[in-house]
Amino acid sequence: MGRLQVRQAVTAAIQAAKIPYVGVVYPARPVIASEQSYYHAMNGEAIEASDNGSVCIMVINIAKDSRTRKAAVGRDAVNDAWVHPIIVELFFASTGTGELGGPQQGIGAQLDYDSIVDNLTDFVRANATMGTPGLVNSGVWSAGEFKAGVQHQQSAAFTLDDEGMTVCIWGDVRFEAWEWIAGDITQLS
């Protein structure tokens, strides 16, 4: 249990969710994400762009965490909550190839981005243990619940160059992933 297992579980679960228009879900920020990352999942499986040419990659971050004793169990045992605030960074791009291209391109991009955020939020709320078929025990006891819930924020849409051929939106979805650690201290080392 701990940061490593939680990071791996959240990454695997979100990648396995196959959210439309999402390519690679990285477990941490890569030095460089290639253009192929937008069009292929981590296992190399091709993904479809939206009708507007929209695609997204995600990066899992755990900027901090807190482990707190929750019950008086003596020095030889633990009963702790280990809370990991998860930040899923969204790097979204839209080429505006659909009917909302040209002067309407920003609208199509925003609608596609909203669809990705809605799907990710629904997935987190429906999958509180971040389990996947290949990962029986994720180590996550609860995700996206309690007071923190699931939160989202985004940048204003922008273009990468003066020609404005690609609309980009950077954003993030935040939630807490909780572990509950209980047992004999000697078994946990």
Shape: elongated
- Rg from Cα: 19 Å
Number of domains: 1
Distance between the termini: 10 Å
Strand content: 25-35%
Estimate the helix proportion, in percent: 10-25%
How many helical elements? 3
Describe this structure in words.
The chain has 189 residues and is of the alpha+beta class. The chain has one domain (3-187). 21% of the residues lie in helices and 33% in strands. The protein contains three helices and eight strands; from the N terminus they run αβαβββαββββ. Strands 1, 2, 3, 4, 5, 6, 7 and 8 form an eight-stranded mixed beta sheet that branches. α2 (36-39) links the parallel β1 (22-26) and β2. The radius of gyration is 19 Å and the shape is elongated. The mean pLDDT is 83.
SSE blueprint:
Blueprint (H helix, E strand, L loop, with lengths): L2 H14 L5 E5 L9 H4 L14 E9 L3 E4 L7 E18 L10 H22 L15 E2 L6 E5 L3 E2 L7 E18 L5
Parallel strand pairs: 1-2
Antiparallel strand pairs: 2-4, 3-4, 4-8, 5-8, 6-8, 7-8
Quick tags:
189 residues, alpha+beta, 3 helices
In short:
The chain has 189 residues and is of the alpha+beta class.
